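To close the section, here is one more complete example, presented without commentary so you can practise reading it yourself. The ligand is nicotinamide-adenine-dinucleotide.
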Amino acid sequence: MLKTDVKIYQNYINGVWLDSLSGETFESVNPADSNDTVAKFQASNKEDVEKAIDSASTAFATWVQTPISKRAAILTKAAAILEERADELALELTREEGKPLGASKKEVSRSADTLRFYAVEGQTLTGETFPNDDPKMKVSTVREPLGVISVITPWNFPISIPARKIAPALITGNTVVFKPSSETPLIALRLVEALDEAGLPPGVLNFVTGHSSYIGASIVRHPAIRGVTFTGSTGAGESIHRSVSLTTRTQMELGGKNPLIVMEDADLEKAAKLTVNGGFSLSGQACTGTSRVIVLSSVKEAFITELVNQVKNLKIGSGMESGAVIGPLANSKQLEKILQYIQIGQEEGADLVYGGKQLTISPYDSGYFVEPAVFTNVNPTMRIAQEEIFGPVVSVIEVQSYEEAISIANDTEYGLSASIVTNNNSYIERFVNDIQSGTVKVNRTTTGNLINAPFGGLKKSSTSTFRESGRAGLDFFTQTKTVYIGY
Ligand code: NAD
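Output:
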């Protein structure tokens, strides 16, 4: 396609699709083929963001009064629209972000399910009543929306993460200004279109694209913003969290360095499969992806042999290609970063026993492809064992005992997800108690979480205040008043 034929998409402010006042655009590019420009988007400025926040502030007064059944009906209708378009949206998601088509289909349908979940769950919000000594007084709590919420999201789940923030925000009566990742604005815009077509009134949801260096501060520090729900890197989340005013709540879902412990009784074929699925699916670009495998010494050699055998069979290719498990990395910055960590690991003295090379010949030459990498003899203090890599790189660390395994598993600044492979009940019970992690799995991948269960991390993986997903996902978007009524 000629560059001049590339479609330009607009911001969505107060129910109208608009060009940015900056007059500038930026491109979203296919990571499997960097010659393929997916579309152009508005490179918005501070004034665009202010217009979006003003429109959300004005719309709040009526949206909060809108009957909850009507709000729920809009979410339900948007879910149906997403489902109707699931096949074409999945193609767009894969073209823009790179994940295999099957994973894109699942993500689109999960987004529809999330809208439907909150359409129902949001209608069951309750307060409490409190007994007291005055027979002529009733004491109770009521919950109300916060006001205008900033929703800021990453590129790795570019529609399902926005859905799990926007749906609970809207059902509880808040209005939203949504800034998606500049790597994946198209699929994010499709969610906004679905909600618009489902009948969302003007101003209730506003969509502004652009680079965080230009609009990041205005979207989180504006005095009308009452909550910032952010998913992304720990560095960015921490700086936003520190920068907002006392009247702005934050919910930060951040990085991970997720361990999988393989005990001496583990089924090694299964342990290797869990490592492959948790560490290499989505090319390791999942916040809950397995990045450290902590293995008991007695089974280490056999485990590594099995792991490398399984990794060798993973098909690398464009997400559009049938059977491809390892797609491209999401962008050129990701590619550079992953290659750098592979070099760091080697310089630190770990053994790269498989993969780790960039693929540069056809059909990979115009995409961001790297072979899945397995490091062994990794020392827990090495950078590859401590820092979030966010790519297809797994580090195997050998230990002598359960106690040593737990101590190493807990020895990072993160605490998002962790798993153990064992059938020993004593290990299972101890692990559930000992591990410092918001998601704890046994004989399952570190990746994956349910729509109806709370999700979030400990330590630097999340703000410890509010969880996402499930019923708990509604809490961030409401505040409590305690009411004393005397008769
Ligand atoms: P990122 O932090 O670079 O960007 C995330 C979003 O924040 C983007 O929209 C970006 O434009 C915006 N942003 C960045 N700095 C900002 C600032 N100062 N002010 C306002 N907005 C700002 O992250 P990414 O590269 O898009 O995503 C990868 C990261 O996301 C990884 O660290 C991964 O672990 C994390 N992640 C966490 C979860 C979770 O639920 N815990 C889920 C997915 C991804």
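Once you have examined the tokens, check your reading against these statements. The chain has 14 helices and 21 strands. The radius of gyration is 23 Å.
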